[in-house]
From TrEMBL:
Transmembrane intervals: none
Domain DUF3097 per the UniProt entry, residue ranges: 22-85, 117-277
Stored Pfam families: DUF3097_C, DUF3097_N
Region (Disordered) residue spans: 1-23
The protein, known as: DUF3097 family protein
Amino acid sequence: MRARSYDPDLTPPWKRPRAAPEVPADPGLVVEEVTTGFCGAVIRWEKTAEGPTVTLEDRFGAHRVFPMVARGFLLEGREVTLVRPKPAGAGKRAPARTASGSVAAPRARARVARAGRIFVEGRHDAELVERVWGDDLRVEGVVVEFLAGVDDLPSVVEEFGPTPDARLGVLVDHLVPGSKEWRIAEAVRAAHGEEVVLVVGHPFVDIWAAVKPAAVGIPAWPEVPRGQDWKTGVCRALGWPENTGAAWQRVLRSVRDYRDLDPGLLGPVEHLIDHVTVGSPAGPVGELAP
């Protein structure tokens, strides 16, 4: 026969004392120590070599330190076991953020595209905007389209036909006052009005330079002599292969979120998103247009 094991405690289960509930020793909790009857509010919890202790302060301002033993305190007349307090902010998860720093919206199907659009000059520029602002744009129902060159801007805007309900935003590469690009942008603004067409630029000679050097792992973007292709010059100066497409992917992968970008790009892109979304109706929830 197999021996049967017995509980050495012969006290009937219904007569055994119930385990005291554990209560975090959060500051301000008022308890009474069972052996001394000292009653006070918790003001401090400490971890010592002998074990955790709690300091209570009574209504006269007197302090007493007690070991945090099992069933050592009374809370509203019931025996409790004080345990380590919860860290500040425990149980409160910080809101999820998109790469642009915006509070992430709850998961939902993308919206049907708005009538408004954002055009971005330069393929690399458009890829960088997608990497950082893509989640925000899908939630807002804003489509970003690639603009091959600013010379095409007047005909692109004319074909789009912007209205107050279908606003157009344009990000131009290296928009410098007095340049040919500046004159084209000014002509578009004059023809259609800034309330429906907003043309902004960033100050960088190339969008690569909008990425902070530290994010890429370099001390600074190299100075490239005038007349030399900037991307090629950068690759030569940094000792990278002169395959600028591969080099751009290296730069793009280094961008985790908006903190890896220079404010000179952040401001213009946020301005464009605000322009297109304010007063521009979005369609019902559905599939986002490509």
